[in-house]
Amino acid sequence: MGINNPKIVAFCCEESGMPAYEHALSLGIELPEGLHVMALPCGGKAETGYLMKALDNGADAVMIFACYEGNCKYVRGNIRAEKRVGYLRERLEKIGMSPDRIVFCPVAPASGARFAELVRREVELLREG
Amino acid sequence: MSGRQAVLRIPDVKPELKELEIPREAVVSGDHPVILAMADGLASMGISVTLVHPFGEIEEIVAPLRGLMEADDEVSRKYAFLTEKVSNNKSIKVMGLSTLVAVEGWWGNFTAEILQDGKLATVKAPGLALAYRGNPKVPEAFSTDDVKGFSEFLGQFDFRKGGMKKVPNPVKRIAFVLDVEKRDEKWPSVTALRFGTYLKEFGSQVYILCRDFKVSVDDMEREYRMAREAGVMIFKYEDLPTIQKGGQGIRLTFRDASAVSREKPLEVTLEDLDAVVVQENILPAEEQVELLAQLRIPSEGGFVGPNNPQFTGRTAKKGVVVGGDTWYPEYPTDAMTTALSASQELFKWVGKGTYKIDVERVAEVDPSKCATCLTCYRICPHDSIRVERYGERNVYITAGAKEGPTWEAARVKVETCNGCGLCASECPAKAIQLVYYPDMEVYDFLEGNLR
Question: At a CB cut-off of 8 Å and minimum separation 6, what does B264 contact?
């Protein structure tokens, strides 16, 4: 059971995810229509509440774009986000949902191509069901 | 094309500025020689410096560094020059035989507790610069009796004042093993190459085993060529070499990973070695760990390091810069450059006399919801949120929050908050909100665009 035009919410760290998104736009890479991009001051600000609220409101997948390990401006924000995502994935699996609906993606600020690639892969994953 | 996606950006609030008075003073502390460079750099920019060091005489600060090559003329000349400059400078107050034991307070108003001759002295300073020496530790994979670390091996020799020429040749066949655990440090390759070239003069056979040979240090390309011409042999390896006792010495076996032997793997055995010297991991000394934790400087497994996107020497805590090993283990000349950049970084904070801060881009606590669980205190990377139980001690004011004598909740120090929102996202009572980016904005966006 796949989804044709999945809604994806991307929470982007202001230091890496957001520049990567803008880089993707400047490269002219086509991004899916159902992508909702939200800037956060740090990946670690992606609260459990935000992620669950996004799913609750009908998002098919939630992606968190944060910095690579050791690159966080706020020392451990990205690690906190990653742990939170791991915890939520476990919870999703327990209640019978696919854990792939919440993913943590480390990106570099100048990797628009990787940003687009990760979104595309997520869309394909949701299409296959 | 673009613009079809719904995007929520961080609101562009007009910064509300508040001016702070910052005295032009700083405390420089540590046992790494680059504290001289830091103190001199700050003093030359017109800042009065308190230099705290644990040695009796100021000349002792420049003691051998992990057996790095102090015979290097350039290094010793530079440090001798600096020592003289610092001891003659009137705006530098030198405190010998003393250590910095604790730091209280925030940027602009640090209180440094300094232990001198068993007596505790407090110094008020708006800025801090730290540079400590790390402790070398031989990696677990090589912790056998046959193997020596760089510092243990080179510590046998006194390289200062031309002492190198007096040392009788100690080894006939020697192998240096680099990049065992930490792969991006440059000081081992510089040391191995310079010491190897020196040993070559006595007719020794020198082997250097590495993963990548790093020569991006001043003048190293030339020295690399000279070493190769003298006959120093450099191998690349991928899997760690194995060490056995065999023949008349130590036997080292590994697989050569250079490009020429990619297709036909080449097993290399070095026999009858008199000494095997491995690169150590430089870790913070035990006495430093508590101080570094107080200042939120990452120290587990190493130091801050150049992978950090912050500027050279800067830490997550405002008004604190680091150099020497506390930043990253480096060759003395590089360490001095880093320390100078760090002192310039500190000048940005304390040099102007006044400083403007933005009191909008901060977090704010709702005292009625706060349960004083200290979660935010543990998480804050800037140490700018704390729980003050006793009302009369609260002399600082949170933007927008009511002032009262019976405040029993966490409070944000506006001057140091960077508004990253980590405390807000972890608060179990949801008592913390970002002033400029409240949760409702995110929820409204989600409801408005997804439904």
Answer: none
The pLDDT value recorded for residue B176 is 93
Q: How far away is chain B from the Cα of A116, in angstroms, using its nearest Cα?
A: 13
Cβ <8 Å between A76 and B425: no
pLDDT in tens, B81-105: 899 999 999 999 999 899 999 988 8
- What are the structural domain ranges in chain A? 8-128
**Which residues in chain B land under pLDDT 70?**
1-4, 64-73, 157-170, 261, 301-302, 305-310, 388-407
B14 is a domain residue = no
ipTM of the complex: 0.93
Q: Inform me whether the pLDDT recorded for A126 exceeds 70.
A: yes
- Supply the range of the domain harboring residue B220: 139-279
In a domain, B163, yes or no: yes
Question: Is A28 at the interface with chain B, CB within 8 A?
Answer: yes
Instruction: Please provide the DSSP assignment of B211-270 as one string.
Output: SS----STTHHHHHHHHHHHT-EEEEBSSPPEEEEETTEEEEEEEE-SGGGSSS-EEEEE
Residue pLDDT, tens place only, A22-61 = 999 999 999 998 899 999 999 999 999 999 999 999 999 9
Query: Does domain A8-128 correspond to CATH entry 3.40.50.960?
Result: yes
Residue pair A6/A35 in contact (Cβ under 8 Å)? The answer is no
Nearest by CB to residue B307, choosing from A38, A50, A71, is: A71
Residue B416 is part of a domain; what is its CATH number? 3.30.70.20
Report the C-alpha gap between B155 and B163 in whole angstroms: 12
Task: Write down which residue in B231, B263, B279 finishes a domain.
Answer: B279
Residue B5 lies in a domain: no
Q: Which residues of B touch A15 (CB under 8 A)?
A: 309
